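ARCHIVE CARD
CATEGORY: sequence design from structure
SOURCE FIELD: tokenized fold
FIELD CONTENT:
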């Protein structure tokens, strides 16, 4: 599952918000609680607990699977079939384009990027999220193996297995 949105906010601000496990509920509405050490530095392997609501509350172990500021953050939810959620940020028309990819799972988590835009607005960043349709984005392509370059990381930096 892929979702895209463009925000009228700098890449660093959007990435900082996405890369904070305590703020997962700002864009993953099924997250009801995150238990993480607020003093611990965010990086690959950072473990935390997350409570999600699917058919009831379920406590899961989770970890940061990739962390390349300010471009890439990925979280792995450790379920019977682990779920990988990867978010990439790229500069786009003076703002930030976010691409969220979630591995194919029996029950993928809901992703709400308009909600992220509202959260950015509440924290003092310009909000203005435009949520694009799922699948391919309009306009310039998201960075990928054929589109990587300075300031645009390859979207394949983290291998995925579906």
């Amino acid at each position: 599952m892929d979702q895209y949105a463009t925000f009228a906010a700098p890449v660093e601000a959007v990435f900082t918000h996405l890369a904070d496990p305590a703020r997962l509920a700002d864009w993953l509405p099924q997250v009801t609680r995150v238990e993480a050490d607020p003093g611990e530095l965010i990086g690959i392997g950072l473990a935390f607990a997350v409570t999600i609501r699917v058919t009831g509350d379920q406590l899961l172990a989770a970890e940061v699977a990739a962390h390349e500021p300010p471009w890439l953050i990925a979280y792995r939810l450790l379920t019977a079939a682990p779920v990988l959620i990867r978010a990439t940020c790229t500069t786009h028309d003076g703002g930030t384009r976010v691409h969220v990819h979630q591995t194919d799972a029996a029950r993928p988590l809901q992703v709400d990027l308009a909600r992220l835009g509202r959260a950015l607005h509440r924290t003092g960043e310009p909000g203005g999220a435009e949520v694009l349709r799922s699948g391919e984005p309009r306009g310039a392509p998201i960075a990928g193996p054929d589109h990587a370059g300075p300031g645009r990381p390859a979207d394949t930096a983290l291998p995925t297995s579906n």
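CARD ANNOTATION: The chain has one domain: 2-132. Residues 130-162 have pLDDT under 50 and may be disordered.
SHELF: design records, drawer C
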